[in-house]
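Hi,

Apologies if this is the wrong queue. I'm a grad student, and the batch job for Cation/multidrug efflux pump from Brevundimonas aurantiaca produced an output file that my downstream script rejects. I'm not sure whether the problem is my script or the file. Here is the sequence I used:
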Amino acid sequence: MIWWWWILPAAAALIGLVLLVRGLRALFGGRAVRGVAGAALGGGVLWLASLATLFGLNLQTYDRLTYERPVASLELRRLGPQYYEIELTPLSQDRPAAATLYPVHGDDWRIDAQVLKWKPWANVLGLDSQYRLERLSGRYRTVEQELTAERSAYDLAAIEENARNGALPYKVEAWDAIRRYRRYIDAADTLYGSAAYMPMAEGARYEVWITQSGLIARPVNEAARAASAGGWTVAD
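Support response: The file is valid. Your script probably expects a header line. Output copied below for reference.
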C-alpha cells in the first residue's frame, strides 16, 4: 500500500479546510474581499485534495487487484511409471518452511487451496487474497485410471497446522468465522476452493502462485516447460 496517497491528500484537505473556515469567518465578519478569497482558496485546495485522493485510490486498484505472489515450489524426480517424488517447499514470506518429500502416483500433480477473496474496496485498503494450502495429490488423465489406479493425496493443511500450533487446546477457524459473520462485516467477496495442476516429468520444477482470483502454476525450467508444451499426453 502506498500510504502517501492517503497522507498528502489528507494534509492538503486539512489545510484547505482551515483556509475555508477562515475565509467564511472573514466573510461573515464583514471582510468580503478577504472572505471570498479565503473561501475560494480553501475550497479549491479541498477540491484538489479530493481529486488526488480519488486518483490515488484508482491507481491502487491497478496494484492490488492484480497483485500476486508465490506460495510454493515443486521439484520432481521420477521413481517409476506414473510415479514421482515431489519436493514441495512453501514460499510464504511470513512463515517460511522446510521442503517436504511426497511420493505421488499419476500423470499430473495437483495442489488445492482454500481462498478468501476480498471485495475491491478491501483490496484498495491493502487486503490481498488469502489462502491456505489444503492438499497435494496425483491426477490421472484417463477416467478409467482415476477410478481404478493407485491414488496419492496429502493433507497439507493438517501438516502445516501441526507444525505451527503444536498442542494448542483450541483454535479459531477463520474460514468458518468469516462465513458466519460476513453479514456484519461485508468485506469478503467470496470464499472458495482453488486448484492448479501440471504434468509430472523427471527434473521438472514448478512454482504455484496466488492471485486475486486463485491459484496458478508456472513451469520454471526447461523440463517443466517441455512437459507443459508436450500436449498433455498420457505417460507410459
